[in-house]
Design a protein that fits this description.
alpha/beta, about 300 residues, Rossmann fold
Length: about 300
Amino acid sequence: MINIRGVVSVLSFLSVVCIKAQDVTMFPESTKVLKIEPSKTDSRITTANTPHFIAYNTNNTKGKLLFFIPGTNGIALKGPMHLFSTAVEQGYSVINLSYINTPAIARICKGDNLLENADCAEDFRNRRVYGDTKFSLIEDMPYDAIVNRLTKLLVYLTEIDKPGNWERYLENGEPNWNEIALAGQSQGGGMSAFIAKTHLVHRVIDFSGGWDYSAKNKIANWYFKNSKTPLERYYGTYHVKEPTANVIIETYKAMEIPDSHVHAFDLEVPQGKRAHSNGVRNLGYKEQWITLLGDGN
């Protein structure tokens, strides 16, 4: 076993690899950090098999789970670590999911595809999230679905990391959504809101979560659907300089996210970086992150 500033790893024969020391120095000393390939949890998975990222405070195994879904081209191990460290400080365990996140919805649900199916974006998300509906425009298999990957990871963690008390996030072999806060950036933010529509979750934080359409200049119908998660549990963010800010605001209004729960980020974006992803990576927003996350205990 290797100890890094009090960070505990698991044995290599469990097929879990400890993350590099420089990646965890921002976390509290009692944090346990794991990397687990999706194929270790479900042997059918071969695509998007880069490891999931997992972190939690070994002194707190009763808090909620922050389930983060990256955006298009996002890699779980390169996720917003300052945000995750803040979440651990707030009492959460953290999972940053590795999943198939290409192509983007905006690349598929446009032009003729959108003309032929006004619900293209909803059908796309259903396929990628749940895997139990037909959608021929992407090649995701049912076992590649976000919910299956999360479920199999939680089951795996209950087996190989007993001290983590991961079984509290499962109920009858499925995610115990009320113990889970959803968050994500871009495509992942939209996925988080999409899941919260049909499951009662602890909280949902949509970081610049996409711009699905049902027709030209008309945002997708699914944004307007009723939600099983109460509206006061929804939070949304955007950066004032990102090109699609106005459309993102429109989606938040359609979902009826309370105005006080919508955060307009406005710090300067470093040269060469994108305003679209600045909200999850800029440590200058830590106070806003704390508000968005709330108390994970």
